[in-house]
Amino acid sequence: MGTLDWLVVVGYFFVMVAIGLWSRGRIRNIADFFTADGRMPWWLSGISHHMSGYSAVMFVAFASEAYRLGLTVYVWWALTIGIGVGIGAFLFAPRWNRLRSKHGVASPLEYLAQRYNVPTQQVMAYAGALLKVVDIAAKWAAVAILLRGFAGVPITWGIVLIGLVTMVYSVLGGLWADALTDFGQFVIQAAAGFAMFFAVAGRLGWGFPATIWDRLPDSHSDPLAGPYTSTFLMALFLIKTLEYNGGMWNLAQRYMAAPSGFAAKRSALLSAALWLVWPLVLFLPMWAAPLIVPGLEGAQAENAYIEMGKEMLPAGMVGLVLAGFFSHTMAMVSSDANVIAAVVNRDMLPHLWKKVRTFSAENQLLLARVTTFSFIGLSMVIAIASGGQGFVLKVVVDLVAATMGPIAIPLMLGLLPWFRRVGSTAAIASVVGGLGLWAFLYVEQMNKAAWVTKGVLVSWPLLLSLILYLAIGFLKKEPSSERDVLLDSLGSDEPEQEKVKA
């Protein structure tokens, strides 16, 4: 990287910190910090939802799979998310918003205490919080690998540098800072993505999206290839539908921050459209990469995007692309840190430390900032300890994708009126059973059991969790008039005669 590239990166960091400082003035209370108090425009909510859904993992782990296997990574990742978010625009997005507007909910898990009971809420809070901190550690490792590849910065220092910048604007500005930086990052990342796309077009010709396939192995044009089977695809589609409509808690916040349920629906449709189109721009250069930087085998494939950048981009553009990498990771980490702070402060601490319930508005806001700081710091420590290489894809697919389903099923299906008689027994059994089966399969995989494929590891825990939720819910119905009132209130934006306190 040259001087101009470094100036671009430093300028990017400066803008992110400035946004955090500016957003601090908009934060008056805990509702502003966690949900923007429902004042976020639908288009900003939609762009923020999209940007918060992926990180530099795409340019390391997923770029590696695109380099090795071709088209399949778009099919099982971006396409499933785009379709899933489109479905969720009608099923889930408006309901998340009405939890805030009608019941004052500030955390995605806050409603679970009434929907099921407090023990169910606590099981899901602890399981999800532990998953999130490891997930974000993988994101830090991914962006640090990119920084090392482009600029020779050691992984530890890369994590510290990017983590500290993210920590500043997340702690100061809350969800407003997250959303505004998401928008800025969307613009920067678009410039970086098109820069790489045009560079490849200049090398291979403007028709390269159609012409490269004849020069690549036949399997690179297959929608499913390698370990990614139809079973894996179907399981991941259900997981991503649940995850990106609120099972990934920070994405539920984007819907909650919109002014109304109708606005949240528009946000989701915008995000769905971006998911279907934008990853194509990002992946096309990676599908062409074997023709430009051939011979990257095994773990070296994780450096495919780095090698492409060095080969194709002029001075200044490398820094812009690197800023684009940062933008993805910082968008996801800051939003995850905000929602984890919401869950800890609203759902976990009040049951561990009774005094929290009597905190003043000022002290609640201070506690939220301390929790955000602590979460980011812990995830950075885990990322540094991991060493980075080979850690990213393992965590994202084998851990996050495989365990998200059991955690998300009771949370997401609990919003829908069709499952109103499913109670806490089914919910807890669903989470514990699914995670227990995943733990068993993961140990078997570590012991080199050939039958534990990626499809098995991802689909079996999800399937068991879903079966337990539906079967126990059907056999042991737990009706509740209070729950009925809650669920009925989420069906429209019309004001209720009597609000139910969540």
From TrEMBL:
<feature type="transmembrane region" description="Helical">
    <location>
        <begin position="425"/>
        <end position="443"/>
    </location>
</feature>
<keyword id="KW-0915">Sodium</keyword>
<feature type="transmembrane region" description="Helical">
    <location>
        <begin position="317"/>
        <end position="344"/>
    </location>
</feature>
<dbReference type="GO" id="GO:0015075">
    <property type="term" value="F:monoatomic ion transmembrane transporter activity"/>
</dbReference>
<feature type="transmembrane region" description="Helical">
    <location>
        <begin position="267"/>
        <end position="288"/>
    </location>
</feature>
<keyword id="KW-0325">Glycoprotein</keyword>
<feature type="transmembrane region" description="Helical">
    <location>
        <begin position="365"/>
        <end position="385"/>
    </location>
</feature>
<dbReference type="GO" id="GO:0098660">
    <property type="term" value="P:inorganic ion transmembrane transport"/>
</dbReference>
<feature type="transmembrane region" description="Helical">
    <location>
        <begin position="123"/>
        <end position="149"/>
    </location>
</feature>
<dbReference type="InterPro" id="IPR018212">
    <property type="entry name" value="Na/solute_symporter_CS"/>
</dbReference>
<feature type="transmembrane region" description="Helical">
    <location>
        <begin position="74"/>
        <end position="93"/>
    </location>
</feature>
<dbReference type="Pfam" id="PF00474">
    <property type="entry name" value="SSF"/>
</dbReference>
<keyword id="KW-0406">Ion transport</keyword>
<comment type="similarity">
    <text>Belongs to the sodium:solute symporter (SSF) (TC 2.A.21) family.</text>
</comment>
<feature type="transmembrane region" description="Helical">
    <location>
        <begin position="6"/>
        <end position="22"/>
    </location>
</feature>
<dbReference type="GO" id="GO:0006814">
    <property type="term" value="P:sodium ion transport"/>
</dbReference>
<feature type="transmembrane region" description="Helical">
    <location>
        <begin position="391"/>
        <end position="413"/>
    </location>
</feature>
<dbReference type="InterPro" id="IPR051163">
    <property type="entry name" value="Sodium:Solute_Symporter_SSF"/>
</dbReference>
<keyword id="KW-0812">Transmembrane</keyword>
<feature type="transmembrane region" description="Helical">
    <location>
        <begin position="155"/>
        <end position="177"/>
    </location>
</feature>
<keyword id="KW-0472">Membrane</keyword>
<dbReference type="InterPro" id="IPR038377">
    <property type="entry name" value="Na/Glc_symporter_sf"/>
</dbReference>
<keyword id="KW-1133">Transmembrane helix</keyword>
<feature type="transmembrane region" description="Helical">
    <location>
        <begin position="226"/>
        <end position="246"/>
    </location>
</feature>
<feature type="transmembrane region" description="Helical">
    <location>
        <begin position="186"/>
        <end position="206"/>
    </location>
</feature>
<keyword id="KW-0813">Transport</keyword>
<keyword id="KW-1003">Cell membrane</keyword>
<dbReference type="InterPro" id="IPR001734">
    <property type="entry name" value="Na/solute_symporter"/>
</dbReference>
<feature type="transmembrane region" description="Helical">
    <location>
        <begin position="42"/>
        <end position="62"/>
    </location>
</feature>
<keyword id="KW-0739">Sodium transport</keyword>
<protein>
    <submittedName>
        <fullName>Na+/proline symporter</fullName>
    </submittedName>
</protein>
<dbReference type="GO" id="GO:0005886">
    <property type="term" value="C:plasma membrane"/>
</dbReference>
<feature type="transmembrane region" description="Helical">
    <location>
        <begin position="455"/>
        <end position="475"/>
    </location>
</feature>
<dbReference type="GO" id="GO:0015293">
    <property type="term" value="F:symporter activity"/>
</dbReference>
